[in-house]
Amino acid sequence: MNLLIRNVRLIDGNGGDPIPSVNVVVENGVISWIGEGNVAPSTHPHYEDINGEDLTLMPGTFDCHEHFAGDGGQNGVMAMNDDAPEVLLVKAAANAKRALMTGQTSARDVGSPYGISITLARQVATGAIPGPRITAAGQWIQRPTTWPYSMVHTIETAEQMRQVVMSQIAQGAGLIKVGATGVREDGTDYATLGPEIAGLVVNLAHVAGLKVAAHCTGFVGATEAVEAGIDSIEHCTNIDAHTAGLMAEKGTVAVPTMSTWDYRLNAAVRWGLTKEEIDESEARREASRASFRHMLDAGVKIAAGTDAGGSPVRHGTIVHEMEVMIEAGLTPMQAIMSATSIAADITGTLEETGTVEVGKLADLILVDGDPLSDLGAMRNVWAVYQGGRRIR
Ligand SMILES: [Zn+2]
After folding, report:
1. What is the CA(384)–ligand 1 centre distance, in A?
2. Cα separation of 271 and 276, whole Å?
3. Which has the closest alpha carbon to 24: 11, 12, 8, 13?
4. In the prediction, which pLDDT does 62 show?
5. Which run of H or E residues covers position 153?
6. So what's the pLDDT on residue 79?
7. CA 53, CA 56: separation in Å to the nearest integer?
8. pTM for the full model?
9. Ligand 1 midpoint to CA 140 (Å)
10. Sheet holding 253-255, edge to edge
């Protein structure tokens, strides 16, 4: 299928000014020509010819922090504890389709029970089921005790870590996800990995061409993860100016998952949360926003991720995450980059996706309106293409 999208406003994902009117040609799933003015030259006689007037053409979006096995909702990640692997895989497939239909053409799945996200990613890649292109971590890996869940793979020694990382790589993981922070009963936090094991994970993953994502809700563990060369810090609830500076220096990407905290507060009344629970959520949101400001001041690269499935957040809600980040200080263009080019970079797929450029896969959305003046326009998705194939 070859496409010609005519007279469309272009936001290419690289951060430059939008171009008011371009024509874009897609041939065999790849963007082959972009130009202002006249219709593209081509030897192909048959195009699906689309009038893009008053629409905005953008890269399909990414969610850099999802757990497709989870549906979200009040029980969040805990709901996954009770399901058998085959049930989780069916739910994950349904969630992947939901996300795709919103215009989210790519995703990072940063942890699934039994590592089912690797199977999910493969089945999407073969075309067996619809979904975003998924870079999947497989299992979460921790030393005690970032997470209290039974479905997480917990190791003690460096040798055990080596074995479990190699096993994820052998199974086809697209990244490695570790827990790096723990919180003591008195509320103080600590680094769970230790520099030797953190460094080992980074080396093993990088040799295999994979990136490492670390769950960090505490300052000490985040600092250790950044120093060890871990590629992305997830959640980032307690990042101070020093650690933010270090992240900027080392090119560590932040995935702040800010809508997670907002979701709980917005649902507080209907869930009947106690005053203590609400206060706790408010404190987390404030810590997250303060960290975000430090990271913005330092110039840290920010990638958009919701923690859908691992928290109450539902899949296919990256636009809300972008809106919360704009509220916290990003410009609309920075928010768009966080869900497109920067997201593709940390997902490891920037060579093929994340921007609208000649030679890239045609993972595209056409939205009704101008997202730079109202980001909510990104919810008015008129068309979604993945590899040049119309999905919606
Ligand atoms: Zn998560």
Report:
1. 26
2. 14
3. 8
4. 98
5. strand 153-154
6. 78
7. 8
8. 0.96
9. 9
10. 153-154, 140-142, 175-179, 211-216, 232-235, 253-255
In 3-state terms, what secondary structure has residue 213? strand
Ion ligand 1: residues, Cβ under 5 Å: 307, 310
C-alpha of residue 66 to centroid of ligand 1, in Å = 6
Q: What is the amino acid identity at position 184?
A: R
Q: Rounded to whole angstroms, how far apart are CA atoms 210 and 176?
A: 7
**Residue whose structure tokens are 């504890």:** 81
Centre a 10 Å sphere on the Cβ of residue 166 and count the other Cβ atoms it contains: 12
- Give Cα separations from 218 to 21, 265, 331, 385 (angstroms): 46, 21, 27, 39
How far apart are the C-alpha atoms of 193 and 201, rounded to whole Å? Answer: 10
Q: Which two tokens stand for residue 313?
A: 């957040």
Residues in the chain, pLDDT under 50: none
Distance CA 16, CA 18 (A): 6
The pLDDT, as a whole number, for residue 90 is: 96
Q: Distance between CA 260 and CA 318 in Å, rounded?
A: 11
Phi and psi of 56, rounded to 5°? -115, 130
C-alpha 91, offset from chain centre: 19
Burial bucket for residue 29 (CB in 10 Å: 0-12, 13-18, 19+): middle
Tell me, in angstroms, the distance from the centre of ligand 1 to residue 33's CA: 38
